[in-house]
Every structure is written in structure tokens, then in C-alpha cells.
Amino acid sequence: MDMELARFNMIEQQVRPWEVLDQTVLEIMRKIPREKFVAPEQMRLAYADVELPLAHGENMMHPRVEGRMLQELAISVDDSCLEIGTGSGYVTACLAHLSKEVYSIDTHQDFLDTAHQRLLDCHIDNVTLEAKDAFSDLDTSKQYDTIAVTGSVPEYTTYFEQMLKVGGRLFMVVGTEPAMHATLVTRTSETEFSRTSLFETVLKPLNGVTHVKGFVL
User: Which segments of the chain have a pLDDT < 70?
Assistant: First the structure.
């Protein structure tokens, strides 16, 4: 299989038609070998328009949703990024190429171990990976320029936006099937936030969200 051609087709047939036109984002997605972030038996589907299954009942996002998320976050080379849900490590790799540094957490240690090796194989060294639950283990006193939440939450929470620097951006998917909305939050001042609904999609719930008081799926 011609992986370079498959990557090109993913960009032109899936990502770009979803209004992902930022040239930096498109170039990063052209550059990163997505096939290195999937299981060997899934390699032929690495660039397909599907949510590839991971262990623990998790999935990789559709490439088009990944591209849209990266574009909406408007990441700059000096940004510090927080990723909630490392998963396969593919989005982690994209964030690492776009930003200064990435702090990525996941509740599954095997995901982190696999992602660590994949990132090393791609010569990516500006990522810190840690096994943490986003709602109980995270140091909420730290602030970031961008926050990417790769699982959905059933209702909007201000929990993550408090970790944004002024001017920082947060991407998260809110709702339950079949009505979920990708949301972009921008911190405009110490006390004010701008929240924009971007598009409809469906995403697996963030691991651990069912244990958070007030969240019922």
C-alpha cells in the first residue's frame, strides 16, 4: 500500500472538505505517518474515514475531526499544550509539531507506553506523558495556551477552561448521542470566556467522566 498516496488522499478527500484550510495544519498531517500510530493489523485503515478502535473500548477520532480540532486551536510555536486523553499518540504528535511543548495525560498506562515509543520513533521529544485522571489527579493550578480534550463530556463544564491562560483556547465535545457539539472556548480575560459551537459530531465519552459528580450518561 502506498502510504504517501493514502495520506494525500486523506487530506484531500476527508480533511480539506471539512473546512480545514490552515496550511500549517495540513502540512503537519501530511508529514506525520499516521500508520505508525495504529496497530499493525490496522495499517491499511490508517487513513480511512473511520474511528479506528483502540484497547479499553476507546477509539481514534476520524482524521477530519482531528484536523478540525487542530485548526480551531490555532496553535503557535510558542504554545504549551495540554492534551486530555493520549490514546494512540497521533494527536499528541500533531500537537508536538505545532507547539513548543505538550503535556498529555491518559488513565491507561499501556496507551502511554505505546505512545511514548511511537513518539520516539518519530523523533518527537517535546512531550511529557503521565498516567492521570483528568478530574482527580490533574494540577489545576497550571495554565496552558491550548487544551485539547479528546473525549466527550455529557454537559458543559468550566473545569478545563480555568486552566487556560488569557488568550488560550480549549477544544472539547459536549453532549450525548446523537446530539454532540464540538465547542471552542477562548479565555478573553481573567474572568471572561468566549464559547462557540463549531459543528456536530459524536465522540466516545472521556474516560472517567461517569465518576464525576453531576455527570450522568
Answer: 210-217
